[in-house]
Specification:
By secondary structure, the protein is of the alpha/beta class. Helix content is about 10%, strand content about 25%. The protein has a 24-stranded mixed beta sheet. The longest helix is centred in the first third of the chain and has 39 residues, at about 5-40.
Length: about 650
């Protein structure tokens, strides 16, 4: 299952979970009323409707193996079972699981089959459409196998709630615009395409519209913005929509939640966005909006995410009046000017993202002291200078999990990190931190830190035993670190310590890092032989860069299961013939062995590597003819082929060029 599909189901099922208890309680009370009424006036489900439900049941199958659905139902506490198993001929359909009946006439008015393991299709002649009194229809979290949404869904004249989040495909039928009593419409997490029908503007009673995670096209119809005045929640997240947002003066007067994340919308932010008194949640991230962020006229906002657009101008001053604000992310735009100090006074702020803008000015570290609820702080890649003023720096941020202050002219480790037990990600790269890592940092995130980037500073020494037990990514490159190579914890997956002054030999202990995928020790003063255990390490490592050191001896032997994609040993003193075991690294894309003392004939057998794009053998002691008429190995993917400064003879075959 793709990452996008997983995310899709996450948001889809969160919505179901929020409505599950409401749906369950309403179904229970209706069923209870139906049973009571049944005993007094002997009304039960009509034969025609019971027959239609049974036909619908038999048109589908139960798939208990479809983990894409049931994993998520279980994960969010939604009971997953085949509700249709209780549908038995000769019994009152009002007592069947998922069925709700009118308590007077016995009509089927509700059908909730969410998380029912259903598999199949719903064509226009399906007996489901023989239930004319339906008010609620929930088919979520099943697998309807890319059925199109039949226009017949538009004939449920009494429908109030429709949820079709179950692998439907094709276009959204305009006939859904006939459902004028509809309050909730959810077609999220499907594979729908085409434009949003203009006719959906007829759904004037709609409160919740969710079409997120689809493959739609075109703009938001002006009819939706002009007519859906009762709408409280509009979710079009990741639906491939584009164009500008109509700037209707009276648009969405009751809107609470607006989610347009990850589309291709452009133009300026619509004026109505800043004038809706009920608005609490805005996520317009990852679009192409431009222009200024205007001043917010009302102060009910809790969540503002506008990251990764093309917004310009200053941060609006009205943000400092949003006292309920918990999340503010304006990262990756073109905002200018200083950061308002009043932003750091917002007492409920949990998430503050202002990274990758053109913000300027001095930020005193003491300004963060009021943000005691802060968990995520991102200020990297601006033109800011964070300064320490001594007396006001003696505080902690106990809930902090992420701190990104790359390229902020930081000169020392922030003291507010002392005692941080929850810190998971710390980026202080591209700063002016000199000397050693302070001893108190050994306790910061000792049992929680996953990502640590201290690259491009002026650190001079690192403890040989690093304290962070759960570290996965460790970047210490481009410092002044000298001494022996430190060995990171066993959990490490990425270890960069290039461009330092590390000396001595590589300890064989590094081969115990069974999760290591990327190792860069280049541009140091390491010497000795490359440990033979690196041959086994290649079963997990994809990138191994030992460039520009002082290694001698032979290249280690590689074994079956080699995962290497990039092997760079350039600029050492390696000798001997080239090991043919490199052929076992079937995924190798880059092989750079230049500027060594490797001897022997041209290794034309490297042509058997199916993905090799870059081969550098320059400045070695290789000799003989490159051309061999009998060889069919042609380096089919090669793009860079550097054999210069060797002792080869003859002509270069055209197929190598």
């Amino acid at each position: 299952m793709s990452c996008l599909q997983k995310t899709c189901h996450f948001f889809c099922l969160v919505f179901f979970f929020l409505n599950f208890q409401e749906n369950l309680s309403s179904s229970t009370s209706s069923s209870s009323s139906s049973s009571s009424s049944s005993s007094s006036i002997k009304e039960s489900c009509s034969h025609d409707e019971a027959s239609a439900l049974l036909q619908f049941k038999h048109s589908l199958s139960i798939d208990r193996t479809y983990s894409d659905v049931w994993d998520y139902c279980h994960g969010y506490g939604i009971k997953l079972f085949p509700k249709t198993d209780s549908w038995k001929e000769g019994t009152d359909c009002c007592s069947w699981d998922g069925v709700t009946c009118d308590n007077i006439k016995g009509h089927v008015i509700g059908l909730d089959l969410s998380c029912s393991l259903l598999y199949g299709t719903i064509p226009s002649h399906c007996s489901l459409f023989l239930l004319p009194n339906l008010q609620k229809l929930v088919l979520a979290a099943n697998n309807f196998h890319f059925s199109t949404i039949s226009p017949k869904f538009g004939e449920f004249a009494s429908l109030v709630y429709l949820n079709l989040c179950s692998y439907f495909s094709g276009q959204i039928p305009s006939a859904l615009g006939n459902l004028t009593k509809l309050i909730k419409l959810d077609t999220s997490c499907d594979y729908l395409s085409g434009q949003i029908p203009y006719a959906l503007g007829n759904l004037t009673k709609l409160i919740n519209l969710d079409m997120s995670f689809n493959y739609l096209s075109g703009q938001i119809p002006s009819s939706l913005i002009r007519n859906l005045s009762q709408l409280e929640c509009l979710n079009l997240r990741a639906s491939h929509l584009e164009g500008s947002i109509p700037d209707e003066v009276s648009a969405f007067r009751n809107l609470i939640n607006l989610d347009l994340y990850a589309n291709s919308f452009n133009g300026t932010l619509p004026s109505w966005l800043f004038t809706i008194p009920s608005l609490k949640y805005i996520d317009l991230s990852f679009n192409h909006f431009s222009g200024r962020v205007k001043e917010f006229q009302y102060h009910s906002l809790i969540f503002i995410h506008l990251l990764s657009n093309e917004l310009q101008g200053p941060i609006p001053s009205s943000i400092s009046k949003l006292l309920n604000l918990t999340h503010l992310d304006l990262s990756s735009n073109k905002l200018q000017g200083p950061i308002l100090s009043s932003i750091f006074q917002l007492p409920n702020l949990v998430y503050l993202g202002l990274a990758s803008n053109n913000l300027i000015g001095i930020v005193e570290i003491g300004m963060f002291s009021k943000l005691q609820n802060l968990q995520y702080l991102y200020l990297s890649s601006n033109n800011l200078s964070l300064i320490f003023n001594g007396t006001n720096d003696d505080y902690t941020l106990p809930k902090l999990q992420d701190l990104f202050l790359s390229s902020c002219s930081v000169s020392e480790f922030p003291h507010f990190l002392r005692g941080s037990k929850r810190l998971q990600n710390l980026d202080l790269s591209n700063n002016r931190i000199y000397g050693k890592i302070p001893k108190w940092m050994r306790d910061v995130g000792k049992d929680s830190l996953i990502y640590l980037n201290l690259s491009h500073n002026f650190l001079t020494s690192i403890d040989q035993e690093l304290p962070w037990k759960k570290i996965e990514i460790l970047d210490l490159s481009s410092n002044l670190v000298h001494g022996d190579l430190p060995i990171p914890p066993l959990t490490t997956q990425v270890f960069f310590i290039s461009k330092n002054s590390i000396s001595g030999q590589i300890p064989s202990l590094i081969c115990n890092l069974s999760s290591l995928g990327f190792l860069d020790l280049s541009h140091n003063n390491l010497s000795g032989i490359i440990p033979q255990c690196f041959g086994n390490l290649s079963k997990s490592v994809e990138l191994l860069n030992l460039r520009v050191n002082k290694f001698h001896g032979i290249i280690p032997t590689f074994f079956k299961g080699c995962q290497l994609k990039n092997l760079n040993l350039n600029g050492n003193q390696l000798e001997g013939p080239l090991t043919r075991s490199i052929r076992k690294c079937k995924g190798l894309e880059v092989l750079d062995l230049g500027n060594n003392r490797i001897k022997g004939k041209f290794p034309r057998w490297l042509g058997s590597l199916p993905r090799l794009e870059v081969l550098v053998l320059r400045s070695n002691q290789l000799q003989g003819s490159i051309h061999n008429k009998r060889s069919t190995l042609s380096f089919s993917k090669i793009q860079i082929f550097d054999l210069s400064s060797n002792h080869f003879t003859g002509t270069l075959p055209v197929r190598y060029i």
